[in-house]
Fold this protein.
Amino acid sequence: MILTMAEREQTKALCGTTQEEINDALKKHQEWINNGKTGNGRMDLSRRVATHTNFRGRDLSNAKFTDANLSYSDFTLAKLYNTDFTNCDLTGCIFAKAELRYADFTGAKINDALFSISPSSTDMFIDDKQAKTLLFLVFKSILCNHSRVEEKI
């Protein structure tokens, strides 16, 4: 059975993207950044499934993840300037000390995500529902850390 290019892309989106494929895309994306963000190579995992992926410390500036399922992925220390997470599933993702300048989270699912963002993170784009979720996560983090401090005393 021979699949068309569109059928191959649809199958890949449904089956998931491997860490090896992600690493190859990350290498191309870094080359794209080094070349002044021109030509091919910009990371675009839109409408892909890439759960439990390691993006730790990577420069994902201007990457597109629109409608992707990136749940339980690790973005610790990642540089996410102008990164598009519109309508992504980011359930359980870790954004510890990530740089989120102008990152767009509009419509993204951020349930159980960990946000411990860097001071350079400004002007994130989120909607009202996400703002409430983030506020809850911040308070939950404060309460958990406060409890740990009290236990040590």
Notes: The beta strands are 94-96, 114-116. The chain is about 35% helix and 5% strand.
